Description:
CATH class of the largest domain: Alpha Beta
Distance between the termini: 14 Å
Number of helices: 9
CATH superfamily of the largest domain: HAD superfamily/HAD-like
CATH topology of the largest domain: Rossmann fold
Number of domains: 2
Strand order of the largest sheet: 5-4-3-2-1-12-13-14
Helix content: 25-40%
CATH architecture of the largest domain: 3-Layer(aba) Sandwich
Shape: globular
Number of strands: 14
Structural class: alpha/beta
Radius of gyration: 18 Å
Amino acid sequence: MSIKMLALDLDGTLLRDNKTISQRTIRALKECQKKGLKIICATARGNLDGIVPEHLFDGRVLKGGAVAYLGDELVYNKIMNIDDLRPFLLAADHRGLLTAIQHSDGVHYANFNVTKKWNSITNYKIVDFSAITFDVDKIYVVTETPESVEFVKKHAPTEIHLFVSRDELTFLFHKDAIKSKATKAIAEHWGIKMSEIVAFGDDMVDVELLQNCGIGVAMGNALDEVKEVADYICHTNENDGVAEWIEKHIL
């Protein structure tokens, strides 16, 4: 199979647990670029927050597939109408669930002090969800109990892409805001087919990406559900799993 592109999740995949990327991994990615391969990140993060050198990526899929960029050019954008979301946001707030929304300005509009849970996130505003007027890229809810997860699922608007992550968060996106569709939008700009892409991931949001790309690689630390759909299982994120697979199969 001809490999022309890599699509890489960040947390739990490309990044080590301390949110750094190893020099071995950086070298492997640069060698792929020298061979002409395109490299993109495909993450639920709203931005890279300076944790990864942006020059490593030829494109970026952010917010779980809600948006995709080639440089500064927005090539994919799937947002949710605030009027459709407001009943859910108010219900979650009334239930006491820590909830936040994001849109294109990168600010976390929340009903709690986001910094107290993630000290790296300082661009937040505490708001009354009934007063929000802009449309939304992404919602996340802190769901630390099975009951809170079920509450979110029960009250979520219809035609929403919802997934529960391994770190006690439940995300809600536009139904077409998924990593594989955003990845395809970028790949088409380079004339690359999905069958020519290798995708790496570890969490539930990565399952459909691994299934829809030519080769799906699950990290050694991935959830069992991710490993079940993968074509390969590499080493863990703590042990340079991405670099190891690239060195063995591409370089």
